[in-house]
Design a protein that fits this description.
290 residues; alpha+beta; elongated; 3 helices
Length: 290
């Protein structure tokens, strides 16, 4: 019995689906009836900002099948000596140019996309780090951690006996440093100042039924920039301005003076002057210049 093998390879040796009559190009399918791909270029993989012919996401090798092929459905490569003319490999559309473009320019685009995704998280971390803290509380937390760690290290050294590889002074010093670091880290979380002004802290007193609104009654300085008023708190040196948008419960924008005549945003605050934790601010208005 004779068995006839059916050849499924068609255009540029790509396998053709017998049911759909589409050619498989790894990344997508090609329809020979229309001379184009059935879906756009994934991620604009073959797009070149300097070559308008590459902007058509459905076109096969920029409509130049005599001089180029697309091996994987992502970009075209010139074939030296194939067709009616030869393409410079370093020119747009050439094999070497396409290889350089895909490994450098598109990689930079991907890095930029990732950077844009993580930027809010990084900004929140920077804002948290820059929030004011009670220095006395932070020093006390660090001292407690250092003392506790030093005592624990000394006990560990004593438990090892005279023949232990780690002596009591060494263990105590290591515990002192580790405990101090742990105490400092704990203080960075627990010692954040909730308010930086000289007015009411927002706590209800006496017969008050609700917290009092925070305000600067005697500002050390006052500036008006772009129609907005900035008040300098005499106690902390921070600058406060009313938040007209009020997103996320924000009533105040709080700034610190990083250089003469220049303010940088550090936090948003609520009506009682409490800093709003984790509040992210867009780049607009993060720096004010007098």
């Amino acid at each position: 019995m004779m068995v006839l093998a059916v050849c499924t390879s068609r255009f540029t040796a790509k396998e053709r689906d017998s049911e759909t009559q589409l050619d498989f190009f790894q990344a997508r399918y090609f329809t020979s009836a229309q001379g184009r791909f059935t879906s756009p270029d994934p991620g604009n993989a073959g797009a070149d900002p300097f070559d308008p012919q590459s902007w058509n996401g459905y076109a096969y090798v920029k409509n130049n099948p005599l001089n180029a092929i697309d091996p994987d459905g992502l970009s075209d490569f010139s074939v030296t000596g194939y067709g009616v003319k030869d393409i410079d490999p370093w020119s747009p559309g050439g094999a070497l140019f396409d290889l350089w473009y895909r490994t450098t320019f598109q990689s930079m685009q991907q890095i930029q996309q990732v950077a844009q995704q993580v930027a809010p998280a990084v900004q929140q971390a920077v804002d948290w780090w820059g929030q004011p803290r009670d220095m006395g509380c932070l020093a006390a937390s660090t001292s407690r951690g250092a003392i506790t760690g030093g005592a624990g290290g000394a006990l560990a050294g004593l438990a090892g006996g005279p023949g232990a590889p780690v002596t009591v002074p060494t263990a105590s010093a290591g515990g002192f440093l580790a405990g101090g670091l742990a105490g400092w880290a704990g203080g960075m979380v627990s010692c954040m100042s909730s308010s930086g002004g000289t007015g009411s802290s927002g706590q209800a007193t006496g017969n008050d039924k609700s917290p009092k609104e925070w305000q600067i009654t005697n500002p050390a300085d006052k500036k008006v920039v772009g129609g907005r008023t900035y008040l300098k708190d005499a106690k902390t040196g921070t600058w406060w301005s009313k938040d007209t948008a009020g997103h996320g419960g924000s009533v105040w924008k709080v700034y610190k003076e990083t250089s003469p005549g220049k303010l940088d945003w550090i936090a948003d605050a609520d009506a009682q002057g409490n800093f709003i934790s984790g509040k992210w601010k867009s780049p607009v208005g993060t720096s004010i210049t007098f």
